[in-house]
Design brief:
alpha/beta, five-stranded mixed beta sheet, UDP-N-acetylmuramoyl-L-alanine:D-glutamate ligase, single chain
């Protein structure tokens, strides 16, 4: 029987808030993760959320602390010591908004393989590995319900007013998978605030064939659209599709760059204006936990696009960020990597770029 891994409760004195403006911002969710690894190992109450993983992916390419800011909403029940920890580990937390009242930030998912995960039926999946359902999950349904709502913001959905003036004129903003209205409204507000580069990883909840008009409204004007292969399949409702045709279709919606993230198969990159197409493999590592791979990719990609303007270099950075995160355990583990490791891996991976 697999041993259950409980995340430790971190206790820190609240550090002083920085007055330095972050260079990059990531918007999305901060979560309390309950998950089962592909090896059948359960983890309970881990610090998680796509905004945090994206922030880690970006921070791997910055030397100065507080270069990356997190934009998110949590309830009063969210552990304050976790936010303190984010600050201590070098993130700007001024845009983490505490919403009055109790708000659910639990996320459950079970990996069926390194490439496939599900986020429903926790009781069934814990039974599959011979474990009782954790009491914290007895009333759990799903963490992404309602993200396709086009009428009103959910309580924890990031909205334009959540981006503080201290984040204005940042070099880049990444939108992690979250509510449709967040993805629909934040880019315009960010541009008005002087934020230079905007990238977006869509939510599978609105990547549906019946919402093509809505998807186009999200994609239009982005610097980069970064769907996963699962999200592209959801959009086409098919297991078999031509990835280059899909990239071209998304590009025609009005963004500069499309990157389809394909897990262990790396990425395909389409530069819309030039028509350039590239295929780049994933960096080979011994995988410990694939959680946050796509999100950490997006954070690394954002810094690369801002620093170089090159979609290939940006993708290389993203793949390196993902490789560092998935060979560790926990959202913050990537920050323990040797400072020279990202650049060393990038130099090696660059040799594997294939122009199509």
């Amino acid at each position: 029987m697999a041993a259950i891994v409980h995340s430790p409760l971190f206790l820190y004195n609240r550090p002083p808030m920085t007055k330095v403006k972050p260079q990059f911002a990531v918007a999305g969710g901060l979560r309390e993760d309950y998950f089962i690894t592909p090896a059948g190992e359960p983890h309970l109450r881990e610090i998680g959320g796509n905004a945090l993983y994206a922030a880690v992916g970006a921070a791997l390419w910055r030397k100065a602390p507080h270069s990356v800011g997190i934009v998110a909403r949590v309830g009063e029940n969210y552990p304050a010591e976790w936010i303190d920890l984010f600050n201590q580990r070098g993130f700007d937390t001024r845009a983490i908004k505490i919403v009055p009242g109790h708000h659910d930030t639990r996320t459950f998912y079970a990996y069926l393989s390194l490439e496939e995960r599900v986020d429903i039926d926790p009781a069934g999946h814990f039974a599959r590995i011979g474990q009782p359902l954790p009491p914290e999950l007895k009333d759990y349904s799903t963490s992404t319900e309602g993200q396709e709502d086009r009428q009103q913001f959910a309580p924890l959905a990031v909205r334009p007013a959540d981006v503080p003036k201290s984040f204005h004129e940042a070099r880049g903003l990444h939108l992690s998978p979250c509510d449709y209205l967040t993805h629909r409204t934040l880019p315009e507000a960010a541009r008005a605030a002087g934020i230079k580069i905007i990238t977006c990883d869509p939510s599978v909840r609105y990547m549906q064939p019946g919402l093509k008009k809505e998807v186009a409204e999200v994609v239009r004007g982005l610097d980069a659209f970064l769907p996963s292969e699962m999200e592209v399949r959801s959009y086409y409702r098919a297991d078999v599709y031509d990835v280059w045709e899909a990239a071209a279709e998304f590009g025609a919606m009005g963004c500069r760059i499309v990157v389809v993230k394909r897990g262990a198969n790396g990425c395909v990159v389409h530069h819309v204006e030039s028509g350039g197409k590239w295929q780049i493999p994933a960096y080979p590592v011994t995988v410990r936990d694939v959680t946050g791979a796509g999100d950490s990719f997006s954070g690394g990609f954002l810094t690369g696009l801002a620093d170089t303007g090159d979609p290939v270099e940006a993708t290389l950075r993203g793949l390196v960020s993902a490789s560092i995160v998935i060979e560790g355990a926990g959202a913050l583990s990537g920050l323990n990597a040797h400072p020279d490791l990202p650049q060393a891996r990038l130099n090696r991976l660059r040799e594997s770029v294939r122009k199509i």
